[in-house]
TrEMBL record:
GO molecular function: lipopolysaccharide binding
Keyword tags: Antibiotic, Antimicrobial, Disulfide bond, Glycoprotein, Immunity, Innate immunity, Secreted, Signal
Protein name: Bactericidal permeability-increasing protein
Record-linked PANTHER family: BACTERICIDAL PERMEABILITY-INCREASING BPI PROTEIN-RELATED, BACTERICIDAL PERMEABILITY-INCREASING PROTEIN
Function of the protein: The cytotoxic action of BPI is limited to many species of Gram-negative bacteria; this specificity may be explained by a strong affinity of the very basic N-terminal half for the negatively charged lipopolysaccharides that are unique to the Gram-negative bacterial outer envelope.
Domain Lipid-binding serum glycoprotein C-terminal: from-to ranges: 1-169
High-level lineage: Eukaryota, Metazoa, Chordata, Craniata, Vertebrata
Length: 170
């Protein structure tokens, strides 16, 4: 007599979707400085990136930058009774934008992350939480790696949680 929803996701379905998005090129995004929140600790300008690469700021003083984020490999997803686990294999390529709109490659980071999503049902609402288990940067750029981890924890995970579960569970 009560309405019911049965939702089943298998690893095959999740990995097929990941394969489809990866193959279609949908797991790519370009980010410019005007897309970042004002409170983001690092702006996409050569002046800010000079903390990590002083030569970049010296060669291109106060130029805007862009980031190209993309998946290097298909994400791997696994379903467990308590959560959906994912391994993400991505790269972040930075470019300096010159006054004539030419993009000059600045650096490339390969970043791998393990993410866990847990479903939550509250008062007939389906939501969830997302947590970041680990981030590994293939290049040894420690300061930038730490900043990326901080940014993911500060902005990425809360954004994902607000999208999945806009009304947090008390």
């Amino acid at each position: 007599h009560e309405p019911m929803l049965l939702l089943a996701i298998t690893e095959f379905v999740a990995n097929s979707a990941a394969f489809t998005y990866f193959t279609a090129g949908a797991l790519e995004r370009n980010i410019s400085s005007d897309m970042l929140p004002r409170r983001f600790p690092l702006q996409l300008k050569t002046k800010s990136m000079g903390l990590f690469s002083p030569q970049l700021h010296e060669r291109y003083p106060n130029h805007p930058m862009e980031l190209h984020l993309s998946a290097r490999r298909q994400p791997q997803l696994s379903c467990r009774p308590d959560a959906l686990h994912g391994a993400l294999f991505s790269s972040a390529e930075a470019f300096v934008v010159l006054p004539n709109a030419t993009r000059v490659p600045a650096f490339l980071l390969n970043i791998d992350a393990n993410v866990t999503g847990k479903p939550i049902i509250t008062r007939n609402r389906l939501g969830g939480t997302v947590s970041l288990k680990g981030v590994l940067s293939v290049l040894q750029v420690k300061r930038l790696e730490n900043l990326l981890k901080f940014a993911l924890w500060l902005f990425g995970v809360p954004w994902a949680n607000s999208e999945c579960c806009p009304h947090p569970v008390p």
